[in-house]
Amino acid sequence: MNFSRFFSALACVCLVGFALVSCENTTGGGGTTVTIPDPVSGLQATSAGDSTVRIRWIAVTGATITGYRVTVVSSTGTVVATGTPTNSIVDIGGLLPGRVYTFRVQTRTRDTVSPERNITWAPAQRVRMSGTGGAVRLYESNSSFGSGLSFQGGVATNRQVIDARLWDLGLDTRPNTAGQVSFDIGSPNATSYDAFRNSGGRKTVVSSNVYNTIDSLNQVFDTQLNVGTTEQLINFTTANRGFVMAVRTQDGNFAKVFVKAVNGVILQGNSPNRFVEVEISYQTVANVPYAVNFNKAAESAVYSDMESAGLRFVGKKVSSQKD
User: Fold this and answer.
1) pTM of structure
2) Are residues 100 and 213 in the same domain?
3) Are residues 203 and 231 in the same domain?
4) pLDDT per residue over 50-95, tens digit each?
5) Of 263, 257, 249, 253, nearest in space to 277 by CA
6) 156 and 107, same structural domain?
C-alpha cells in the first residue's frame, strides 16, 4: 500500500517505533513524573478522493507538545500505517476504495502520548464531470435538457423525464401548489413530475444533514453521518451560497452532493435552460458509509442552520404536468 501522501516522518517512525513504545506512558528517572498530554478534541474527517481521507482536529497547545501520532487501522484490526505529523490537518493517501478505516490520533510529547481519539471513515470517489466530459448539471423544468441525474457506478448522466426511472437526483423549478416560485432539488419521487407515478423509478433518500454556505466539498468535515429513510427535496429558492446534502441511492451507495453557487446564484444560466451544477463524493461500494455512530445532537443543529441559509425541506408533488 502506497502512503506517499502520508507524513514525511513516516519512514523514521518505522526505525524508532520500538524506542517510542519503550519510553511512552512511563515515569521518568530520579522520581520525575512524566505528564501525559491532553488528548485531541474535535476530530473530524472528509473523503478527499477514492484513496484519500483528510482528517482534522483542534490543536493541543503547550510547551512540551511535539506533535501528534496518527495510526491507521483496517476493518480487520490491522495497523496499516503510522505517522507523526506536527499539523492538525492531515491527508492520508494510499487507501483502498470501498474500505472502512479507523484513524487514531494521539498528542505527543518527547516522552509519552495522550489517550487516543478515534474516527471511522472511508475514502470516496469524486464525480466532477459527466460521462460526456462536461460539468455535471441538472436543468430547469422547462428546458429541453434533462432535469434528472443518474450517477450509478460513479458516472454522472443527465436524464430527461422520459428516463425518470433512472434518476438518482431531480431538479424541480415549477411553482409550488400555491403558485409561488419554488426551486427544489433532491429525491426524484418527491418532485412534481407525473412521470414518476408509474415509472418504477429509483428511490433516493435525502438526509436532514445539510451543510450550508459551502464553496467546496473539501470544506465538509463530519464526525458521523446518518442518511435516514426519507425521500425529500431541499428548497433553495432564497439561498445564495452553495450547500451539500447527503443521500443514499436505490442500490445503497452513499453520496454527498455539492450544489454550487456562482456569484450568489445557484440556478445559473438563462431561461429556459437554467441549470444547477453539482459535484459528488460517491461511495462506489454499496452500504459503505462515510462513518458510523451518528450524533443525533448534530442533526438538530442542522435544521436551524438550514433556515438561516435559506434552505428547507419540501414535499412538492402536484397533479399538473407542464413539460
Assistant:
1) 0.82
2) no
3) yes
4) 999 999 999 999 999 999 999 999 999 999 999 999 999 999 999 9
5) 257
6) no
